[in-house]
UniProtKB/TrEMBL annotation:
Signal peptide boundaries: 1-18
InterPro entries with a match to the protein in the record: Polysacc_lyase_14
Domain of life: Eukaryota
Keyword Transferase: no
Keyword terms of this UniProt record: Signal
Naturally occurring in which organism (per UniProt): Sphaeroforma arctica JP610
Name of the featured protein: Polysaccharide lyase 14 domain-containing protein
Domain Polysaccharide lyase: 94-309
This protein's record includes keyword Signal: yes
Any Pfam family the entry gives: Polysacc_lyase_14
Amino acid sequence: MLMNQLFTTAYLMGLVMARPDLDLEQRSDSVIEGYGALEMFDVINFDFLSTGDAPDMYTIFAAKKDGCFGAIHASSQCTPQKTNHNIIARNRIDSSEKIMQVPILAGTYGGDQEGSGSQFYTTQLESLWELVAATLEYEVYFDENFDFAKGGKLPGMHGGDRTCSGGHKATGSDCFSTRLMWRENGDGEAYLYLPMSLQRNSFCNKCSGYSAGTTCDEMTHCSMNRASFSFRKGQWNKIKMQVWMNTDGNQDGFWNLYHNDRLVMSENSLGYRIDKSVPLSGMYFSTFFGGGSSDYAPVYDTQIDFKGFRLTAGIV
């Protein structure tokens, strides 16, 4: 009830806007960024906790318990067989600041192994009636000795029933997710679970990892635009991701990605869903090596640092 009242107030104040009737070519970044927004959470750092603490994802992010691993959820593990490894640590560039560190054990990959990383979902955006747009921001740090190996996952946004990963084929009436991946040498790419049967051929042609002639209907997800930017070691990488949902029955949704304040990807003809039964839900925090084979695994224990989390209803 409170969230609905907040949304109504924000809507009347012009903070969360209904979708404008714009042609795709008119939706430039300057037009998009002209709309206001309603902040859902803002975890710039973890200075409110002590170094060595295990951060509680329910308390901090109101995370859902299903779909979690390797994290604390209201004093119990997200999944019983995988203990928490996330800790609060000092920012390695500015020791006065505390961040969240995700340790990853040597030889681990995917989301099923002990010590392979961490994952959880938030759903704050579902409380905002018919919300059409949202922005996720965070910062990620890889130390100077980090071995990118063959690649791994990084957070994004999601909508619907929290099943759009692990080879699930979205239908348009269940879910979507918009994570990122790092690849060899830190090359960045989009890792999108969308209802591929709803996409245009021109979009599907950009998806890597499929044999020539694979149709949209045959795809489960889209890895695309590899090396359009690079994650840099020894410094904070600032990520901003914008999602604007499609209107019913149309391929007019968009997805923008900024790296260190530079627009590096932009797609403006996407279908996230068939109709409004699939909502914009929230953040999909997900980080681990893989891929689903051992050649993705790191050869030594490592860690990935995070801070600067901000989820906003609207485009900022």
